[in-house]
Design a protein that fits this description.
The complex is a heterodimer of chains A (161) and B (747). Chain A has 161 residues and is an alpha+beta fold. Chain A is built from five helices and five strands. Chain A is 32% helix and 16% strand. Chain B has 747 residues and is of the alpha+beta class. In chain B, a hairpin with a 5-residue loop joins strand 25 and strand 26. The termini of chain B are far apart. Classes of the chains: A alpha+beta (161), B alpha+beta (747).
Chain lengths: 161, 747
């Protein structure tokens, strides 16, 4: 027997890390899968698939979103920034450098999302208080660090900027 | 410190070896690999806690001929996950023993169709009665494992407990304490990628802590010679014990599908499956009966420690062992009896999780000592002071403490840093009127590093060090980097041994085709035990080059490179392997469970401050101080990171992380309702190391990874007692329990 006929794929055009891309995808496909499987940008991780852990965080038109909850149809015409688009070529972003220096990354699986959350925070608020940092990162779970060194990394990154 | 080693890197916060790859997203985890022709694999599981399989029905509506289907009958070797016993099948063959038992495997290239297919396999079963608690298991309500539901029991005897308790004038204090299951919740779920064929053998890459455990299991599963099985660790997104034994299961499943299909098969669990089906921390019940003199000297401790092992033996006997040995804590008591049992229930097997049984028994002891202190009218810290173990005293297993132990000084330091006494007094006063009640509490404890007893002797771990013709140094070890910093500290240790720069040392990715068996990455043994072998191997390279006249003392990096080249040209490859040898003064009796349980202990005193909002009954940890002695600190940033992360897991276990069981199944297998601390929940964690170099380890470092899991829960619950007036005797303590207990105590 045949499965129910799937909806047709649609063409989607968006900007990913400053490059315009066009691809065909099912409208309800998760942005996460399209990035990882379609565009081979595997720096975006799947931790829970239900919008709780933030490992799949990307910036969509400057907003931090869980890409596991974003249907790709919503990405039409959007500017998407993933972890692969944070460093400037070989030159790490101040947040990335600070994460390496301060021990903000341990196992590294939450790190791409965490770095993007921190980048987003500093773009909006270059001098955050500790409460601002806690609030801004509260959607990104880390099981290794207890967050202490992640806060330090963000503070260090502000000092460098 | 070994002779002739200049510390230049040890003690310094060098950048994490793989840090750049991790912050740029370039690090490759197993789910990031997609070789040509890849199939995805899934597991069809039981839905009853115990029963007999009558029939497996493939519902219509699925193009079954496109699927690879594997059942127990497809297994080429033995249908058992080789670990300690061979009681756990890879795929149920007739009998089901827990509600997530794997029964059948499916593979297909389309993940979405695969999920439809998984739901279209119906397993017809005849249910059998099951047991779900330690009590039901011990009462033998049903015999669900072996002859008596008991995987393992231990008896530790020191002195004469009965005689001591019968003495006149002693005060006897009893108590019962419980701890709940806890999910490791590494953010990367378990996953493996396998290729297999009858000629080449089986190759598995995956997220794991112990490549040689997986290797041993695959050899048995396929009946292949060891050289036909190759296991490679991919970047691993956290383990905490949760990737100690379980990867053998998932690797075997992926490999069976690959074997049958002839194509690469990836099996990557989603979060719900990972939480429901893989191992968790063993739930426990501990009963204490303590005899104490009126002035607070411990005379006799009788401890019954029982843990729920789930449906199969897995590592429960070893978890039980560590919990048993730690159950009497860092105290000097002349008479101790510990009886312990690991029992079977019809839940997925419980397994390794940071601390490995010790957090459970230490929670019980620390809560109990607060009760003992109350019974004799002493402050909890004064009771501890009168009983702390010191150099020359013996532990419960009769181990004479040969190092200097300054528990009292650690506790004093923790009190100073946390302002304990002033806060305790202030909270007592302010709680009478404030709506938000506060409390401060502490725990004092120790954690043994390395395998228990004769474990390290049996493991005979091996580490290699290689100097290439180009003068690069490569460390060859099976110890895995799982976030804790193995790559970094091994490079520091080897570079110091050879007098080279950090950048000139490479730590090779664990691949059983390249690295020797250095034992598993568990038990806080990587730095202290395996690190020492790294140091010895690196020194061996230097001795060969110097002894062969290739190198003179005081060499430069350039001279080292030239010496390596000359050695390669004239003699050949330069590799040195070192095998672990147990120090002669470490003696352990496995029969009597007496002797030197660990070659070294780390010691600690933790203080927690909590608040309880009596409108919402939300409890928060507001401040945390962790003071410990772990020998020498190899890398201050990584070491502090281990403590902070462990504290966060301990806080979660104490206040947030409740596994809701429904007939052996985890009902809240989601991050939505199994709650771990977020950045908004964690208090500041102030970490302080007291350094006391340990002579038997590289640069004097003792194990560190598990220690911080032991102290937070008892410290937090002790603080809760001050805040609420209720002496809770279990974890996790949830808000509704606080509400009920406080309302009850007001009546």
């Amino acid at each position: 027997m045949k499965l129910p006929e799937p909806v047709n794929k649609i063409p989607v055009t968006c900007s990913v890390n400053g490059r315009e891309v066009t691809f065909d995808a099912y409208p309800m496909a998760r942005l996460l899968d399209v990035l990882r499987e379609g565009l081979r940008l595997t720096g975006t991780k799947e931790g829970c698939g239900e919008g709780e852990c933030g490992a799949c965080s990307v910036l969509l038109d400057g907003e931090l979103v869980n890409s596991c909850l974003v249907p790709v149809a919503q990405a039409e015409g959007a500017r998407i920034r993933t972890i692969e688009g944070v460093a400037d070529g070989e030159r790490l972003h101040a947040v990335q450098r600070a994460f390496v220096e301060c021990g903000g990354a341990q196992c590294g699986i939450c790190t791409p999302g965490m770095v993007l959350a921190a980048v987003r925070l500093l773009e909006e608020n270059p001098r955050p208080t500790e409460a601002d940092i806690r609030e801004a990162l509260a959607g990104n779970l880390c099981r290794c660090t207890g967050y202490v060194r992640i806060f330090e990394s963000v503070v260090r990154a502000c000092q460098k900027e | 410190m070994a002779l002739g080693i200049k510390d230049r890197l040890v003690g310094r916060p060098v950048p994490r070896k793989e840090g750049r790859a991790k912050v740029t997203g370039a690090a490759l985890y197993v789910d990031d690999l997609s070789p040509q022709g890849l199939l995805h694999g899934v597991t069809v599981r039981s839905r009853v806690p115990r029963g007999r399989i009558k029939e497996i029905v493939f519902e219509p509506g699925i193009p079954w001929d496109e699927f690879i289907v594997v059942t127990a009958r497809d297994i080429p070797g033995e249908n058992a996950v080789a670990l300690i016993l061979l009681d756990q099948p890879y795929l149920a063959d007739g009998l089901i023993n827990h509600p997530e038992e794997p029964i059948l495997l499916l593979a297909h290239e389309d993940r979405h169709l695969l999920e439809e297919a998984r739901r279209a396999v119906r397993v017809e079963t005849e249910p059998l009665p099951a047991v779900f608690t330690i009590e039901e298991s011990l009462a033998r309500k049903e015999i669900v494992w072996g002859e008596d539901n008991v995987f393992k029991s231990f008896l530790v005897e020191k002195g004469d407990v009965d005689a001591a308790r019968a003495r006149e004038g002693v005060i006897v204090v009893e108590g019962e304490y419980r701890t709940g299951a806890q999910e490791q919740l590494y953010i990367e779920p378990n996953g493996c990628l396998a290729t297999a064929d009858p000629d080449a053998g089986v190759i598995v890459e995956g997220s794991m802590q112990c490549p040689y455990y997986v290797h041993k299991a695959l050899v048995k599963l396929f009946g292949l010679p060891p050289e036909k099985v190759r296991v490679i660790q991919t970047e691993t997104g956290g383990g905490f014990g949760g990737k100690e034994e379980y990867p053998s299961m998932i690797a075997g499943h992926a490999a069976l599908l690959a074997w049958k299909s002839g194509r690469p098969v990836k099996m990557a669990y989603d979060r719900a499956e990972d939480m429901a089906a893989t191992t968790k921390r063993h739930p426990s019940r501990t009963r204490h009966r303590t005899a104490v003199t009126p002035d607070g000297k411990l005379l006799a401790m009788e401890i019954d420690f029982d843990i729920d092992g789930g449906a199969y033996a897995t590592l429960s006997s070893v978890v039980l062992s560590r919990g048993t040995i730690h159950s009497a804590g860092p105290y000097n008591c002349p008479n101790v009896r510990v009886r312990s049992r690991a029992v079977a229930t019809n839940a997925p097997p419980h397994g390794a999780f940071r601390g490995f049984g010790a957090p459970q028994s230490i929670f019980a002891l620390e809560r109990h000592l607060d009760r003992v202190a109350r019974a004799v009218g002493l402050a909890p810290e004064e009771l501890r002071r009168r009983n702390f173990i010191r150099r020359g005293d013996t532990t419960a297993t009769g181990q004479v403490i040969r190092e200097s132990v300054e528990m009292e000084a650690l506790l004093e330091r923790a009190f100073e840093l946390s302002d304990y006494h002033a806060k305790r007094e202030r909270f007592a006063r302010e709680n009478q009127s404030n709506i938000v009640k506060r409390g401060i509490g502490f725990a004092t404890f120790m954690h043994g590093a390395g395998f228990t007893g004769s474990g390290e002797k049996f493991l005979q771990s091996v580490v290699g060090c290689e100097a290439t013709a180009e003068g690069r140094v490569r460390v060859l070890a099976a110890s895995t980097e799982i976030g804790q910093g193995t790559n970094t500290i091994f490079a520091q240790i080897a570079a110091d041994a050879l007098g080279l720069d950090y950048e000139e040392v490479e730590v090779v990715r664990p691949d059983t085709a390249d690295v020797p068996d250095s034992g598993p990455t568990v038990a806080s043994r990587t730095c202290m035990i395996v690190g020492k072998l790294v140091e010895t191997s690196a020194l061996g390279i230097r001795q060969i080059l110097e002894g062969g006249g290739f190198l003179r003392d005081g060499y430069t990096a350039e001279e080292f490179r030239r010496a390596c080249r000359e050695h390669a040209e004239t003699i050949g490859p330069l590799r040195v392997f070192t095998r672990y040898e147990q120090p002669a003064d470490v003696n352990w009796d496995d029969q009597l469970y007496r002797g030197d349980a660990y070659s070294a202990f780390a010691w600690a005193a933790y203080v927690a401050e909590v608040s309880v909002d009596t409108l919402t009954y939300e409890a928060r940890v507001e401040d945390f101080v962790a003071v410990q002695e772990v020998g020498r600190v190899i890398h201050p940033v990584l070491a502090a990171g281990q403590i902070e992360g462990g504290v966060a897991q301990g806080v979660g276990w104490a206040l947030y992380e409740r596994v809701a069981w429904r007939e052996g199944r985890m009902a809240n297998a989601q991050m939505t309702n199994y709650i771990i601390p977020t950045s908004a929940d964690m208090p500041p964690v102030r970490v302080h190391f007291v350094e006391n170099p340990f002579p038997g380890a590289p640069a004097g470092a003792k194990g560190i990874g598990e220690l911080p899991m032991d102290g937070p829960a008892p410290a937090v619950v002790s603080a809760l007692e001050q805040a609420t007036g209720v002496a809770f005797d279990h974890v996790p303590v949830m808000p509704e329990e606080i509400m009920e207990a406080m309302e009850r105590s007001r009546q």
